[in-house]
Amino acid sequence: MPAPVDMDVLHIILTATSLLCVFSYEITVNSFDLLPCKEDDKVCVTGSGDCVQPPPPLAQKNFNMSCYFKVSLESVTCEWSEKQFSHTAASVSLIFNRQSFRPVKHCPALFVPAERLMITARVRSSSVELWSQPHYVFVYKAVKPAAPELTVIGSTEDSVSVGWSSSGDTRCQLRYRAHSSETWSQSPDFVFTPQNQKHIYSINGLQPFTFYTATVSCSRTVGIWSNWSAGVSVRTLDRAPSKYPQPCYRLDKTDSGGRLHIMWKALDPHDAGGHILGYQVSYRRVMGQQLQDRSVVNVTDEICVLTVDEGTWRVSVAAFNTAGVGPSVNLSVDTRRHRPLSSVRNMWVSCSVPVGTGLWVQWEIPAQPVTHFDVWWRLETNVSSSCWSTVNSSTSSTLIQDVDPMESYLISVVPVYKQQCGPPQSVSASLRLGALMEPTKLKVTGVNQTAVTVMWAWQRRSGPVRVDGYRVTLRSDSYEQTQPLWPDQRQHTFINLTADTEYCLVLWADNSSTHMISVRTEFDQFPVVATAMPLLLLAATVFIVSILSRTMYKGFFYPRVSSPQDSTAGQWLMDSKHQAPVTYSFKQNSTKQNILDIQDFQDVDLLEVKSTIVVEPCCPDPLDRLVIKLSDLRLDAEHDGPAPSTPQQFQCGPSDDEGGTAHHTEQGSQEQAHDAVKRCFGGVADAQITCEGEYVVNASYQERTVVSVTCDTDYLPNVAALT
């Protein structure tokens, strides 16, 4: 039996990785650790306990084992995977058999390139023992060179030069990747390296100002590839930006001019030269055809705020880095002709379906014309880590991918029309919870017969439950109206409601109610007014008709007596300057009296006296004093009395029986109303005329009497005399 093997000398590298109870093993055996077996002179082992007869081939398992030989260390390393044993409870060893019939005289000399070996793995535990199927190895073809040492030679804007050396003629392959990527890129061809010579290789087509990691692996013409060398890190140089930003502006008007907000999208790494230190914003005022002195501002963010006076301004934006300043773009802004754009409405952020693939951003397209939408997002804890994407004007949603599920982001949407942009609308969100905002303080602010107005406020949500949307519902037994809630809204009015009705206002988070308010609409007075108004109109009509009828009937039955005092003519006549003294005579009596006396018009007492006057032809007065006109005489055809045969004289005036005085008292005047006064005419009379005199006596002034005479003619029977 061979002597026991010192386990401290045996160098075994054992790596176990548990993944669904699968363990990976890697064992390295040096040549000086090999021991011969007395039972078989072609077998070398690492411990005397392995010098036993292996089980039959049917009991052996295929471990899918691979082995390689390291010339510099004169060692053999084998690797395989096993599902049944835990590495903490198993003992692993390798058994080496020479394929030729020659016995092994010295086991440490077994590992030579010309040797052909049959390697078997043995895994033992307290209850189970496994043997692998033999793995055949030609040591010359299983040689694995040592990993070369890679060094950095230099770098440019888009390339990196590295070098390495090899102890023998080898073929090598290089791989590299950017620090921000997990994918390796390999050189397209093998690189042949002569023995003891240093080879330099240049990696081209890289991004400027980018960190890269490179490694190299080599192998002989035949054999196994070496392990990848330790990676080296190298950074390419800066390149001046090759493209200008695409800015837009927004103006907030002030009394003196305005605040000019300039925003732009960060350049792509290829266009930015790989690295942007900042942006140079220059602006100057245009006065007629001349430009004033230029002012320059350097910023590191993608936004710049300028305070400008009223007028026309020319603004230019350019990116710069350590290699220089890139091309610039110009903006022309006239603060007097600025027409602001409105922001997007109804913006919301939710987790995409399936959950975890990204953040779904949606909004409502504004009514104003829009060229495109800029969507940008950044970590709430890192202002400089912003990313942008552009969405066409007909799209109202986008998906943001490659976000960290453990971080929260501030997402903004900006409408852009040519070079003018509207105010950004922003919402905080995370991949686990969606939008980090919730409505609160829901209350009713206005109620009438047909409408209810509600208000709410928005706050940051701290709950661990993901919510895809909020809405508020107003409902009754026979009515329901729902309104989605968006962060840009603070109130809503429900219309077309029923008066004097009880409603319930409910705030929903997805399908769960979070707040509830009872509200009742006001009583509607219109039906009452509509019913009472015809009755009131009917009563008013009856009242007006009665008043008009009373006035009309009163005027008909009780006519109004005119008053001289109220007339314009009467007031003119009663003026004192129109009262002049005059003298007149009546029946040879002379009296001096004024034309007008105001008292005569203040106290009026009229009396009409009718008298019958008989005119006879006994008056000696001449005919020219006769006051009766011939046209006033009326012929009576029925009169058949005899005509007088002789001419008679007419007597004019009052008769002697009545007295000659012209002064009558009121009592005398009344007596004269019953007396007949006869007068006679001189000359031939064909008819007898009877006249009635109407005396108008002024009771307040009895010296004046007004006489009106009405005469009737009685024709005489002598008709021949008339012809």
UniProtKB/TrEMBL annotation:
Keyword field contains Nucleotidyltransferase: no
GO cellular component, one term: receptor complex
Chain residue ranges for the region called Disordered: 638-672
One function term, GO molecular function aspect: cytokine binding
Basic and acidic residues bias: start-end ranges: 660-672
Keyword terms of this UniProt record: Disulfide bond, Glycoprotein, Membrane, Receptor, Repeat, Signal, Transmembrane, Transmembrane helix
Protein name, as recorded: Interleukin-6 receptor subunit beta isoform X3
Gene: LOC114862293
